[in-house]
Amino acid sequence: MSTTQSELSEVELIKEKSEGLRGTIAEGLADGNDGFSEDDKQLLKFHGLYQQKNRDKKADGEGEKKNSFMLRGRIPGGRLTAEQYLAWDYLGERFGGGALRLTTRQSVQLHGLLKEDLKSVMQEIHRVGLTSVGACGDVVRNVTEALNITGNPLYGQLSYFSQLLSDYFKYESTSYVEIWLDDVQQNPVKQERIYGKTYLPRKFKIAVCLAGENGVDLYANDMGFAATAVNGKIDGFFVFVGGGGGMTHNKPETFPRAADLLGWVPVDALLPIATAIVTAHRDFGDRTNRKHARLKYVLADRGVQWFRNEVETRAKISFDTVRPLPAWKVPEYHGFIKKPDGKYNFGLYIMNGRIKDIPGYRLKTAIQLAVARTGVSVQLTPDQDMLFLDMDDKQRLELLHIFKSHGINTNRPNALYRRALACVSLPTCALALTESERYFPHVIRDINRLVEKYNLMDRAPLVRMTGCPNGCGRPYSAEIGIVGQQNGGKYAIFLGGNYAGTKVGEAVLQKVQMTELPAHLDKAFAFWSKESQPKERFGDFIARVGIDKIKALLATTDK
Ligand code: SRM
Ligand code: SF4
Prior knowledge:
- This protein is globular.
- α9 crosses α10 (304-315).
- β18 (421-422), α14 and β19 (463-466) form a beta-alpha-beta unit.
- The chain is built from 17 helices and 22 strands.
- It has helices at 10-16, 25-29, 38-44, 82-94, 118-127, 153-168, 175-181, 270-284, 295-302, 304-315, 363-374, 393-405, 415-418, 440-453, 517-531, 538-545, 547-555; strands at 49-53, 67-72, 79-80, 100-102, 108-113, 144-145, 206-210, 223-230, 233-241, 260-266, 335-338, 344-348, 354-355, 357-358, 361-362, 378-380, 386-391, 421-422, 463-466, 480-486, 490-495, 506-513.
- The protein has 559 residues and is α+β, with helices and mostly antiparallel strands.
- Iron/sulfur cluster (SF4) is lined by residues 423-425, 429, 431-432, 436, 466-468, 470-472.
């Protein structure tokens, strides 16, 4: 049955009449207000911008709180030259309140931008060969890519494919260059090659890695490619579809979902298969209800076999469904890594990806100096960290000296901190129900105490926290997911995900205050350390004993 105009969600109507994502953004820029119209706010996302209010700040006098903007870059694989990183650094300093925020998808966000500065900011990132086109909105967003930790040339080939996917699925409307870069109007009402007139029903996320190495949380993406290689050359991909994190508490029809494996295809099938999957989402995704519009619901409602057939028919390519998938590991990248060519990579741990200076810990200045003086490129990580690439010994010593003199610890963090994540949340995120980033240092310190108490650091659990159930810090694929549930600092606790990120956990506790969490985890860790098999990780232990046993155990926790 086809959808009628009146059943479509409001955003669908806004996209349709937007004339290629233009709306009245250009007029809005000149209207003297600090914000944009409701319709344009939706369209701004396709340009990489969110209109926000600082939720900490009080309204000025009788008036409304001031609007400001968050800008997110489109940075495939998080790869930045020194010049490009320094441009972000400068923009954060000059326009973004002196800070940058690395994201869980290898990108950079600036917060607190003012409307009158937006054009200057966009023009500066364009000057250094960057963009924010399609970093948000109902399109293919930033493509994430495995980190090239050891300088293995296979990862260089991987970069080629993630860049290819990013470029191929970039929307074609020239609204971005016209509005922000003052280009002349080129194609007012173009029908997009992939996206048609109304783009996708919802956001679409892609990750690329090598089969067997899941540093990108492949199973949390709408579409994932895990490359195989023969004789040092990528020869094909395992193709995954239908992962995603967002849900709404107490609405069981919304849920996080781990991606399914469709099968393996040879390397030259990449674009036809990717196109078939994206266009299947375009055509079968729910455009009436945005809470049911992601690709994962097409998979859940119609089934994996149905979807596989649909993709095969569209691409005219069959999947190899018998080739065995290698077991997953998650590569470690912190500290100095000596590569076969004698050069070094250095993985810097950054708590929650927030780069700013505080007294005694001048992280922003240190990174800026390290990048400026060594001139090396960096790769941002899906865990909100940064990898400095290809340093010779002189550059390595220079970097060490700079970090040391700015109070930055260059040691590898312990196993608990290494992959821990928290989303942005308050004060900028409009959807936040609770704190996340700002509370996380305290929360992880409490968990660290328990991990040490039970001597579990060699297999410390993967912990992730978010300020609402949208899942921006990927809490559902963590071994311990702490998910904002209600004002007043109440969280749902998810257990049952695993370290390799191949499945999602489920809620075992509701409306927990953070002061109560240690008592619950103490009980769970005591059980795990007593009953576990040698070296058994928390997620694997729960899978073996059954989540119901843990639920029953936690239900008896004294607070
Ligand atoms: Fe996210 C919305 C921040 C990764 C699922 N996300 C938001 C917004 C834009 C809030 C809003 O709509 O007003 C947040 C901006 C906060 C702020 O002030 O900066 C926000 N998301 C982030 C980032 C910055 C979190 C971080 O701490 O790093 C991540 C940026 C990634 C990037 O560079 O592109 C971020 N968001 C994710 C992820 C993780 C991932 O993709 O690996 C997810 C879960 C996976 C998924 O998409 O299913 C995620 N964000 C969401 C959702 C729920 C979508 C859904 O299907 O229900 C929303 C809400 C929405 O879209 O309506 C959301
Ligand atoms: Fe905001 Fe929720 Fe995403 Fe955190 S998980 S950044 S609170 S939308």
